[in-house]
Amino acid sequence: MARLHEYQGKAILAANGFKIPRGRAASTADEAVAAADELAGAKDDEVVIKIQAWTTGRAGIGGVAFAKEPEDVRTHAARMLAMKVGEFPVEAVLVEEKIAIEREFFLSFAIDDATRAPVIIFSAGGGSGIEERASSARRIACDVNRGPLEVEVKEAAESCGLSSEHAAQLGDSIRKLFAAARNVEARSLEINPLVLTNDGQFVAADCRLTIDDYAVARHPELKIEIAREFDHPPTALERVAYAVEQSDHRGTFYFAQLATAAADGSKGLAGFHGAGGGGSMMSMDAIVNAGFTIANFTDTSGNPSASKVYRASRIILAQPDLIGYFGSGSGVASQEQYWSAYGLAKAFWELDLDIPGVIRLGGNAEDRAVDVLRRMSKLLRAPVEGYRKTNAPATVAERFAKLVAGAGGTKWKPRTPRVPEFVRDPSATMLAVKGGRVWIDSAQWSRDSGMRRAVETHSGGLIVDRAGAPAASLASEEFANKDSELLACDVECRIAGVEGFHLELHIPGLDELVRRKVAAGAS
Predict the structure, then answer these.
(1) 287, 465 in Cβ contact below 8 A?
(2) What are the pLDDT digits (tens) for 31-52?
């Protein structure tokens, strides 16, 4: 489920007839002061400043404050914008008018998995501690087309001891909640609290909203960057990774950042690369139980292309301070595991891997996959070991711990990939492929029959000699979609010591992100 911040959810509520407090979001302390000035006008009114973060109990962590004076607003906003919730920074605060509350209510829309239908949950007491008062909540059944059942809406509104006018307004709020949720295809929409103000108005004082992942594409107006459930706004790396997934649907690629530093007492921060949901979960448990902190969760499964696995590996290795690369997933995958091995091998060589790697690629053609990693490891500065499905994740994690312990505390520093010198030669031959380019040293091709034979063999005949020059053997459109086969050729030529063939695969935004990290580290 894709989440929205409180201020975004309130805008949706307002568009569906709810009254919301006056205010706006701010990403700097100056913007927060300006927002408070707009609210106060000529009056010396108090405002509330709230962190915009996907967490509960904001007040308990200092994420809610009241202020009258501009300098107090500035102080609170600056403090909050310097906060982290978990591993991730607060990027915005919401500055709103303080409202005078007479009563609080809890109102929530959700999808009931048991009945496979929408339901509205209502309680005559809202605010903090609602979880402990859940037994007093009332469930209002909803028809997916017509909304909440009218008789139940009336009973809920009239059960609160309100005047007939306020009971009617409350009932109207329940109906509008369903309409708002349906209009944006929400998975859940919670107002806690919905307040009755001293001047007799019902106002949505807070809002939590999630959108069904599959509905995101139908609602570009919501400007949701990633149609997945995160506990934080998408990071720069997560945006890069999501773009990779959206541009290549061969298999799946899921990437989420979890930690930027090792936990106290941990053996270090490990890059994690899984394959298959259940196998990935089991492997994550194994590496955590071995004493490591996981920097990220990554899953490439469902028969991913070699180039997709390569891009996933590059993104994992854009994270600093890793002490090793741990890959492990399903042991019964039907996909040919050597494609993943080729993708990993290319990334490891291009980035000149100097931290140990342990990769468990269980499933079809696992022996070939392990052999690819074994041969590539000889060209790397740190050991990379491949394992099969008969090697349990816990066993492989123990081996990973031993390799890390023997690495002398080396921590990974992100870097841009190595590129062979001949690629810069204007005479080099360039052929376009899916998401990248193939480069061939034309001068060497014309004089080195060994190189020609190697490329023709390892490319499966995709690159052939025509009149003494390299050329594609297939129609351009078909050839352009053979990026994984050409990646395998790249790796096999590299392992064989054959220079003059290079596959360049684009990952939009990644190299610039890495360069910024390198520059920040150098300064």
Answers:
(1) no
(2) 999 999 999 864 668 999 999 9
What domains, with CATH codes, occur in the chain? 22-97 (3.30.1490.20), 101-222 (3.30.470.20), 236-405 (3.40.50.261), 421-505 (no CATH)
Strand, helix or coil for residue 518: helix
Give strand pairing partners of 101.
197
pLDDT surpasses 70 at 510: yes
- Rounded to 5 degrees, what are φ and ψ at 490? -55, -50
d(CA 45, CA 32): 15
DSSP structural state of residue 8: H
Which residues fall within 8 angstroms of residue 230, CB to CB, at 6 or more apart?
3, 54, 238, 256
Q: Concatenated DSSP letters for 434-495?
A: TTEEEEE-HHHHHH-HHHHHHHHHHTTTSEEEETTEEEESS-HHHHHT-HHHHHHHHHHHHH
Under 8 Å between Cβ of 480 and 432: yes
State what percent of residues in the chain have pLDDT above 90. Answer: 85
Q: What is the DSSP letter of 517?
A: H
In the chain, how long is the greatest CA-to-CA distance? Answer: 94
Alpha helices in 2-149 (DSSP H): 6-15, 29-40, 70-81
**Closest by alpha carbon to 76, among 56, 57, 99, 95?**
95
What mean pLDDT do residues 58-76 have? 95
Sheet architecture: strand order including 293-294: 293-294, 269-273, 322-328, 357-360, 384-387
Give buried/exposed letters for 295-322 (b at 16+ CB in 10 A, else e).
bbbbbbbebbbbbbbbbbbbbbbbbbeb
Q: Cα–Cα distance between 388 and 343 in angstroms, integer?
A: 17
| SS3 assignment, position 316 | helix
Q: What is the pLDDT of residue 182?
A: 96
Q: Give the pLDDT confidence of 407-458 residue by residue, as tens digits.
A: 999 999 999 999 999 999 999 999 999 999 999 999 999 999 999 999 999 9
The helix or strand, by DSSP H or E, that contains position 511, with its residue range, turns out to be helix 510-522
The proportion of the chain whose per-residue pLDDT surpasses 70, expressed as a percent, equals: 96
Given a cut of 50, whether residue 523 has pLDDT beyond it is no
Residue 156 to residue 123: CA distance in whole angstroms: 8
Q: What is the 3-state secondary structure (H, E, C) of 336-349?
A: CHHHHHHHHHHHHH
Kindly provide the residue ranges of all beta strands, DSSP E only, lying in 13-145, ordered along the sequence: 23-26, 47-51, 64-67, 84-85, 88-89, 93-97, 101-112, 117-123, 138-143
